[in-house]
Design a protein that fits this description.
alpha/beta; binds S-adenosyl-L-homocysteine; two-stranded antiparallel sheet; globular; Rossmann fold; seven-stranded mixed beta sheet; about 220 residues
C-alpha cells in the first residue's frame, strides 16, 4: 500500500473516525486493508462545509448537481468485493462524483482511471485529489457506458451509478481474473452485482439490495 499521509488535513477527531470504522465492522466489513484505508481517507474534505460535520456518519450526502457521495458502508463493501483477490493493478471507476470512492481505490490499486459525465463535479474531484496529493488517478469527462478501452483491460471495474444492465463494453474491458461490481436496476429497485471473468467465461452473482443514482448516457 502507498503510505498515505493525511495528517493535519482534518478537524475530525480520531475517535469520530474510529466510531465509523466500528460501524463498518459491525455491518460485516472484514478486510483489514479496506478498513484501514476507510480510516485514513478524510471524507470531510469531499463534502461542502455546511455538511462536513456529518462526514463520518454512515450515510450518503448531497454533493450538488442532483448527485450524492456514496454511503461509507457501500464504498467499503464494493471496495472489499473488488480487492478480495488482493491488491489491484489497474482499476476503472465509472462516476467519479466528488472523488471519494476514487481516493479509497487509489490506496488499494497501482493506478485508477475514472470517468465522470458532469464537468463541475470532475473539477471538484480533481481539487480533492490534489489536496490529498493522490498521484495515481487519471480522470476524464465522458460517458462511462463506453468505459476506457485504450487504458484497459482492467482487473477491477467499479460503477458508482446504476445502469439497467451492465454495459457490454465494460465487461469487454475486464481482464482475465478481473472483477466488476455494479449496482444494477431502475431508479427504485437495484441490486449489487459482481461479475468476473474465469478464463474466457463471464460469471456473475447478485448480492444485496442497494440504492444509487442512475447511470445516464452522454455528458452533461
Ligand atoms: N463515487 C462517488 C459517487 C458519485 S454518484 C463519490 O464517492 O462521490 C455517481 C456519479 O456517477 C455522479 O457523479 C454521476 O454524474 C455519475 N454518472 C452517472 N452516469 C454516468 C456515466 N454514464 N458516465 C460517467 N459518470 C456517470
Amino acid at each position: 500500500m502507498t503510505e498515505p499521509n493525511f495528517e493535519g488535513i482534518g478537524f475530525t477527531s480520531r475517535r469520530t473516525r474510529d466510531r465509523l470504522i466500528g460501524r463498518l465492522e459491525a455491518a460485516g466489513i472484514g478486510n483489514p486493508a479496506v478498513l484501514e484505508v476507510m480510516r485514513q481517507v478524510p471524507r470531510h474534505i469531499f463534502i461542502d462545509e455546511a455538511l462536513a460535520h456529518r462526514a463520518y456518519e454512515d450515510s450518503s450526502l448531497p454533493i450538488g448537481h442532483g448527485q450524492t457521495i456514496s454511503q461509507p458502508y457501500i464504498v467499503a463493501r464494493m471496495t472489499e468485493l473488488l480487492v478480495a483477490q488482493g491488491r489491484l493493478q489497474r482499476v476503472l471507476e465509472v462516476g467519479s462524483g466528488c472523488g471519494y470512492q476514487t481516493a479509497v481505490l487509489s490506496q488499494l490499486a497501482d493506478r485508477v482511471w475514472t470517468v465522470e459525465r458532469i464537468g463541475p463535479l470532475l473539477t471538484k474531484a480533481r481539487r480533492h485529489w490534489s489536496q490529498l496529493k493522490l498521484r495515481n488517478i487519471t480522470a476524464r469527462l465522458g460517458d462511462g457506458f463506453e468505459g476506457w478501452a485504450d487504458r484497459g483491460p482492467f482487473d477491477g471495474i467499479l460503477l458508482a451509478a446504476a445502469p439497467r444492465q451492465v454495459p457490454p463494453a465494460l465487461l469487454e474491458q475486464l481482464a482475465p481474473g478481473g472483477v466488476l461490481v455494479a449496482p444494477v436496476g431502475d431508479r427504485d429497485e437495484q441490486v449489487l452485482e459482481r461479475h468476473w471473468r474465469e478464463g474466457s467465461v463471464l460469471k456473475s452473482e447478485v448480492l444485496e439490495a442497494v440504492r444509487f443514482v442512475p447511470m445516464l448516457g452522454g455528458t452533461a
